[in-house]
Amino acid sequence: MTMKFTRTGKAYQLVIRDGNDLQDALSLDEALWVAMSAPVKAYTCDPKFLDFVDTFKDGHLTSSEVKDAIRWLLDVYPKKELITDHFSGTLQLSDINVASANGKAIEHSAQYILKDLDAPSKSEIDLATVRKFQSILTSRPLNGDGVISQTAATVVKDAALAPLMGQLVVDAVAATGGTKDLDGTMGITLDQFKAFWGAVPEYLAWLDTAVLPEGEKSTALLPFGYDTPALMGLLDANAALVDEFFKLTDLQTFDQRLTGQTLEIDGRPGVVDPGKWPGLESHLKTMPLVQPRPDGKIPLDNPDYINPLYRAWFRDLTVKLLRTVLGEVSELDRDGWAKVKAVFGEYRAYLAAKKGAICEKVDVAHLRDYAAHQELPGLAADLAERDLKVADILKEAAQVEQLLLYLQWLLRLCNNFFSFPDLYDPKVPTLFERGKIVI
């Protein structure tokens, strides 16, 4: 090994002219390096090249990463004398070391690219050709990103099911959140497909539990038939206010000092300060549904007792639910209220036991259509498998790109890392040069 050094500035620096010098540089004591680490953003060259060298993906190039880059290049491209800063940009496939595992993969990928693009020459390749291939491949329905998009659904093996698969992708995105495809649209991964597909039968079975038997108008689960959800929603809208009424009644019975006083919803005696009047609606919101009464009952036929803010709701509750459950009563007491709430006990338990909840946002008709086509999982798996093959092709194409970029830039990088000859040469810009200074 013969290393050549030259005096640059006030120090001796290693001369790196070709691949042989790169080989020697691997043995150079790092104490003689000009730089040991540098931020990626410091260099003005192809950003993809820097990304390849930055294997730690931390935004910094280190001496170990630069050494690894040199070893990789010399492994796949052993013709050291051809590694210079005058690289033509064209890689001869015959110069690749096919005895190396990486080299063999690079040659295979280069041949695949040239054949796919029907290039006039099958013995050489350049960076523009590789990137054209990558651009074409990533714009295809199956682009190697691991995402099944609506576009990918158009190339499903059973063409007759392509529209259904496309709709499933839309619904699965709504259910799972989806994953962005390279084309910018939302799609799903195979895992997201499986999560959605597994939830479909669970959700449909849960829904079917709440179906009235033929000829029946109600069941224990659906005490008001298919009106049960709406009536429970009506109840729940302000049920807490009715609960509060009974609590305030208990409070007033317990604390005789509050008897006859107007209470706010939190049990405090109401005090109106004209100077701090919050407005009618705001004031009513601080008041209970009904002021506590000695008999602990809420009149159903006298709206004057009801907070004006909730009169319309209480009237609907009385007509549609209270008298349906309790009969033609004129007052609502604690026991009656408990009975009304208990009517929905089984339905609440049903809701709490919901299965496949991610399917809630999806049209039930769509779900039943999917369930009727049990071949869909196999078709989705096939799409994912074909997409994975594209990913492998892109990965190998990236190695061809890496070799071309290393041949173009690695020697120059080393002359801006191991040593800085360009820094003292006014005719050659450095890779870390920025702008101009006028003196």
Could you please describe the fold and organization of this structure?
With 439 residues, this protein is mainly alpha-helical. It has 15 helices and 10 strands. The chain has helices at residues 19-25, 47-53, 63-76, 101-116, 127-138, 150-153, 162-176, 190-209, 228-254, 280-285, 311-326, 334-342, 345-352, 364-371, 376-414, and strands at 5-8, 11-14, 37-39, 60-62, 90-92, 124-126, 179-180, 186-187, 298-299, 331-332. Strands 1-2 form a two-stranded antiparallel ribbon. Helix 1 packs across helix 3 and helix 11 packs across helix 12 (334-342). The chain is elongated and about 110 Å long. The two termini are 44 Å apart.
Topology:
Layout: E1 5-8, E2 11-14, H1 19-25, E3 37-39, H2 47-53, E4 60-62, H3 63-76, E5 90-92, H4 101-116, E6 124-126, H5 127-138, H6 150-153, H7 162-176, E7 179-180, E8 186-187, H8 190-209, H9 228-254, H10 280-285, E9 298-299, H11 311-326, E10 331-332, H12 334-342, H13 345-352, H14 364-371, H15 376-414
Antiparallel strand pairs: 1-2, 3-4, 5-6, 7-8, 9-10
Observed structural traits:
single chain; 439 residues; mainly alpha; two-stranded antiparallel sheet; 15 helices; 10 strands; 47% helix; 6% strand; elongated
